[in-house]
Design goal:
This protein is mainly beta. It has 3 helices and 20 strands. The protein has helices at 63-69, 149-154, 197-204, and strands at residues 2-7, 12-20, 23-30, 33-40, 46-47, 55-59, 78-82, 87-88, 94-96, 103-105, 107-113, 129-136, 139-140, 159-166, 175-180, 183-189, 215-217, 225-227, 232-237, 241-249. Strands 1, 2, 3, 4, 5, 6, 7, 8, 11, 12, 14 and 17 form a 12-stranded mixed β-sheet that branches. Strands 9-20-19-15-16 form a 5-stranded mixed β-sheet, with no helix packed on it. A 3-stranded antiparallel β-sheet has the order 13-10-18. This is 2-keto-4-pentenoate hydratase/2-oxohepta-3-ene-1,7-dioic acid hydratase in catechol pathway.
C-alpha cells in the first residue's frame, strides 16, 4: 500500500494511492477507514508522507562511500540527527542558504516507524516498521568544517521525503539511484549496506525511543556531489518510489 499525506485545501490529510482503470487516484483515509477520492494522483499536491518528531541518520554505511573518502569501516552505525524543520515533500524546492559554496545531495532509503520502538531486537525490528520511503539527506558541506553538524544537516528544506510510504516494498535488497538533471550520479542497492535496517533499528533504539511517524535514514552510497540552484535531484528506489525536488536559492531576508 502507498500511503500519502496531501494538501486538501483545508490542511493536511492522509490517504492511500489506488490504481484504477483511469489511472492512480488518492483516496482519503480517516479514523473510520477509507473515504472519498481526493483526486487523481497527478493533480493532488503531495506533502512529506509523514511528520516525524525524530529523524535519526546513519553515516558511512556503504563501502563505496568509505572508499571515496578514505574512511575505515565502522564497527557500529555512526549516528547523527536532522531536525524536523528540515522536512519537505516531493516537488518542494531545496533552498540553498546564502553563502553556502557546496550544497550536496545524498540519496537514501528511509525507514518510517509504525509503532513505538524501544530496545528492539534485530529479529523482530521489522515488525515496528510502517514502511519505506525515499530521502535526500541534503548537506551544506561548508558547515561541517567546524565539527558542528546542526547547520550542515538541519537547515530548512534539507530533508526531502516521499513521495509516499510503501508498506509492502518486497523483501529487498532495493536498488537505489540518484540522478542530477537526468544524469545518474549514485547507483547501488541496499544489500551493500554495512549495517542493514534491522541492525540499525536495534542500535538506535538502545538510546532513542522512536514513535510512529519517526524516520531513520540508512546512509548514502558513493557519488555524493554538489548541486546548485536550477538543478533537479531525483532519488529512485526500486519497489518504493521516486522523489524529485528542484534546487533554488533561499531568499535573502529583508532587514527592517
Amino acid at each position: 500500500m502507498r500511503l500519502v499525506r496531501y494538501d486538501s485545501g483545508q490542511g493536511p490529510r492522509t490517504g492511500r494511492v489506488e490504481t484504477g482503470g483511469d489511472g492512480d487516484v488518492v483516496r482519503e483515509l480517516g479514523p473510520s477507514g477509507p473515504g472519498a477520492v481526493a483526486g487523481r494522483l497527478a493533480e493532488v499536491v503531495l506533502l512529506a508522507p509523514c511528520d516525524p518528531r525524530t529523524i535519526v541518520c546513519v553515516g558511512s554505511n556503504y563501502p563505496c562511500q568509505l572508499a571515496e573518502k578514505g574512511r575505515p569501516r565502522p564497527e557500529r552505525p555512526a549516528l547523527f540527527l536532522k531536525a524536523p524543520n528540515a522536512v519537505v515533500g516531493p516537488g518542494e524546492p531545496v533552498l540553498r542558504p546564502a553563502g553556502v559554496e557546496r550544497l550536496e545531495y545524498e540519496g537514501e532509503l528511509a525507514v518510517v516507524i509504525g509503532r513505538r520502538a524501544r530496545d528492539l531486537d534485530e529479529r523482530t525490528a521489522w515488525s515496528h516498521v510502517l514502511g519505506l520511503t525515499c530521502a535526500n539527506d541534503v548537506t551544506a558541506h561548508d558547515y561541517r568544517a567546524d565539527g558542528q553538524w546542526a547547520r550542515a544537516k538541519s537547515a530548512d528544506t534539507f530533508c526531502p521525503l516521499g513521495p509516499w510510504i510503501e508498506t509492502e516494498p518486497g523483501a529487498g535488497p532495493w536498488g537505489l539511484r540518484t540522478t542530477l538533471n537526468g544524469r545518474t550520479v549514485q547507483e547501488s542497492d541496499t544489500g551493500a549496506m554495512i549495517f542493514d535496517v534491522a541492525r540499525i533499528l536495534a542500535h538506535v533504539t538502545r538510546w532513542i525511543t522512536l514513535q510512529p511517524g519517526d524516520v531513520v535514514l540508512t546512509g548514502s552510497p558513493g557519488g555524493v556531489g554538489p548541486m546548485t540552484a536550477g538543478d533537479r535531484v531525483t532519488v529512485e528506489i526500486d519497489g518504493v518510489g521516486t522523489l524529485e525536488n528542484p534546487v533554488a536559492e533561499r531568499p535573502t531576508p529583508v532587514v527592517h
